[in-house]
């Protein structure tokens, strides 16, 4: 029996790094190619066979809700378009239309709940907002800025580990030690080549104080006990309650594991990370040849 049936996406950040566009739309609705960042994050959940999804937002905004709703009229339009393209034997446009229809149908069987974080008090406070939604069950937790592309969805990799160990699992990868200041650094005892027993998590340490270059990267599967730690968590110096601080405290009482997941991660909440995602996704699309030719041309001209 599958143990993890709920997932939470943290998407309540104010998007200050992407002003002024985030004055008008939530940062999760900024697009990479023809889909918003939140599409890729939610798709990872659905492909991991979880259909009960909560999105923590900063305010009531219909753009996110509208995007994930079932628009039967648009689906009908594309179904008719596909029939026409099949008759015309227009294979290239047919492939594009089928892909678009698949994207629109992806969330048809998913249930979305929208929960407002009333003030920006940090990731820990945002997770506290979903306690009722989790209904005393373990849950997957995803940072809404992080897109992870992998053959087996990252969340599925983590839920499989949760099923194996019946313990909280932290999604990690190794980073350049000079980059560890951006992440939580994991002190561990090796369990096997990809799984590590967590001893401590140090959030954004100085390089010389980091216990390792194994970094937590915005994907977790956690036991419901996390809430008792969040409720007693002291705020950091910036006044925010950090989820990692509570996760670290819980790891002292409950066995937790870090899992070195397979996949390529893009920090779409950072402008450089966003640009990398745009380029890589374009080069993986039907525009690959033309876009590659264009990049080579402008690099030669501006070298």
Question: Could you characterize the architecture of this molecule?
Answer:
This protein has helices spanning 37-47, 62-68, 72-88, 91-105, 123-128, 131-134, 154-165, 226-230, 243-253, 271-283, 288-302; strands spanning 6-10, 31-32, 35-36, 52-57, 111-116, 139-143, 146-149, 168-174, 184-190, 195-203, 214-222, 256-260, 264-267. The strands form 3 sheets. It has a 5-stranded mixed β-barrel. Helices cover 38% and strands 23% of the residues. The protein has 3 domains: 6-70 and 107-269, Spore Coat Polysaccharide Biosynthesis Protein SpsA, Chain A, CATH 3.90.550; 71-106, no CATH class; 270-303, no CATH class. Helix 3 runs antiparallel to helix 4. A hairpin with a 4-residue loop joins strand 9 and strand 10. The protein is globular, with a radius of gyration of 20 Å. The chain has 303 residues and is an alpha/beta fold.
């Amino acid at each position: 029996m599958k143990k993890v049936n709920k997932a939470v996406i943290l998407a309540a950040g104010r998007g200050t790094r992407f002003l002024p566009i985030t004055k008008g739309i939530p940062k999760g609705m900024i697009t990479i190619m023809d889909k918003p960042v939140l599409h890729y994050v939610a798709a990872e959940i659905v492909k991991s066979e979880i259909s009960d999804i909560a999105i923590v937002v900063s305010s009531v905004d219909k753009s996110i809700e509208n995007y994930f709703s079932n628009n039967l009229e648009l689906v009908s339009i594309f179904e008719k378009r596909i029939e026409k393209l099949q008759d015309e034997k227009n294979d290239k446009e047919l492939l594009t239309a089928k892909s678009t229809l698949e994207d629109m149908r992806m969330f048809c069987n998913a249930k979305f709940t929208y929960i407002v974080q009333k003030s920006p008090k940090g990731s820990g406070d945002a997770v506290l907002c979903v306690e009722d939604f989790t209904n005393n069950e373990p849950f997957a937790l995803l940072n809404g800025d992080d897109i992870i592309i992998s053959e087996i969805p990252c969340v599925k990799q983590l839920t499989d580990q949760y099923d194996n160990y019946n313990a909280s699992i932290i999604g990690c990868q190794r980073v350049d030690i000079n980059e560890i200041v951006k992440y939580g650094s994991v002190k561990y005892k090796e369990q096997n080549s990809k799984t590590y027993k967590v001893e401590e998590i140090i959030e954004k340490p100085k390089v010389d104080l980091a216990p390792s270059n194994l970094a937590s990267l915005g994907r977790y599967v956690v036991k419901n006990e996390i809430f008792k730690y969040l409720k007693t968590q002291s705020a950091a110096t910036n006044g925010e309650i950090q989820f990692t601080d509570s996760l670290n405290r819980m790891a002292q009482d409950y066995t937790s594991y870090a899992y070195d997941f397979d996949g390529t991660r893009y920090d779409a909440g950072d402008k450089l990370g966003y640009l990398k995602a745009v380029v890589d996704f374009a080069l993986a699309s039907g525009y690959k040849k033309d876009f590659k030719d264009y990049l080579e041309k402008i690099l030669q001209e501006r070298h």
